[in-house]
UniProtKB/TrEMBL annotation:
Organism, scientific name: Winogradskyella endarachnes
Residues annotated as the enzyme's active site: 38 (nucleophile), 182 (proton acceptor)
Chain span(s) of sequence motif GXGXXG: 8-13
GO molecular function terms listed in the Swiss-Prot or TrEMBL record: hydrolase activity
Keyword Oxidoreductase listed: no
GO biological process: lipid catabolic process
Domain PNPLA: 4-195
Protein name: Patatin-like phospholipase family protein
Length: 294
């Protein structure tokens, strides 16, 4: 049984879309199982439904207002460089409302419901062995994996949304009395889970470079420094996931193919730029093509 696993990585998910397109359309990889965390959870339902063209249009056109109902960021452009700075007014407004996060991502939940249709949900359940998204149960301090085969349509869309909630910048969700957030807080790339669920070959797309190519520039204020800190911590979780995944694959005789980004695509994956995401999608496709030509 073949599985496709996609890590978290915000807007860098466009790169994963390009890699997946090459593997599915040109290498004819027919996946039985799809697993994703955070941005990976946004990609896997469309890939499982075979809607790659639709996914490209959705992903490369997403904007800040499609994600944030209250955005903690202001997107700016200086020359060819695009970056985000903190929206102190919105953040202050959240404090005044006694909210625990700097922003709210309820717009993303509507966006998911709009683009992951009920018919696609039924098609996936019928044709694929499983589609799984990763969430972090903060109340019980554990990672949970939500299968499309065990969820109603409404529940599954909600778990996809929760898997993407990168706190403290996005919404903190509550389900059955437990509080949940981005699955990357516990498992950035669930390779081991794919193997435990019966995968005999795994293609895993890691939305980070295998080695750090250049020195990172840390934030100039507490908010941007917090983003850098979270990025560092998630990177350590990801490396641990990969190490555990490699050990699980070796112990069970599973073939594991890892696809890293060739370079560090961005220092802030919360920038959603059409120009950059289109570029990254094509870079992902070209990277996978060159790798297989070798």
């Amino acid at each position: 049984m073949r599985a496709l696993v996609i890590s978290g990585g915000g807007s860098k998910g466009a790169f994963a879309g390009g890699v997946a397109q090459y593997l599915m359309e040109h290498k004819k990889h027919n996946y039985d199982m799809f697993l994703g965390t955070s941005t990976g959870s946004l990609l896997v339902p469309h890939l499982a439904a075979g809607e790659i063209g639709k996914l490209y249009d959705i992903f490369t056109n997403v904007q800040q207002h499609d994600i944030f109902s209250v955005s903690p960021f202001i997107q700016r452009k200086k020359g060819d460089r695009e970056y985000v700075s903190i929206d102190f007014i919105n953040s202050l407004w959240q404090f005044m409302r006694r909210k625990r996060t700097f922003g709210e991502s309820k717009a993303l939940r509507k966006h998911i419901r709009k683009h992951v249709t009920y018919n696609e949900y039924l098609k996936i359940r019928k044709e694929k062995h499983d589609v799984v998204v990763t969430v972090a149960n903060l109340s019980l301090n554990r990672v949970e994996y939500k299968s499309i085969q065990e969820c109603s349509y409404e529940e599954f869309c909600n778990w996809i949304w929760i898997s993407c909630n990168y706190i403290p910048f996005m919404s903190l969700a509550k389900v059955d009395g437990y509080e949940y957030a981005d699955g990357g807080l516990g498992s950035v790339i669930p390779i081991r889970e794919a193997i435990l669920r019966g995968a005999t070959e795994v293609d895993a797309i890691v939305l980070e470079a295998e080695t750090l190519g250049k020195q990172k520039v840390l934030g100039k204020n507490p908010f941007s420094l917090m983003i850098n800190l979270f990025s560092h911590l998630l990177n350590q979780v990801e490396r641990n996931d990969i190490m555990i995944g490699k050990l699980a694959a070796k112990n069970r005789g599973v073939k594991l193919n890892l696809y890293y980004t060739p370079t560090s695509l961005t220092e802030n994956s919360l920038i959603f730029s059409k120009r950059l995401m289109e570029k990254w999608w094509h870079e992902g496709f070209d990277y996978a093509e060159k790798r297989h030509e070798k």
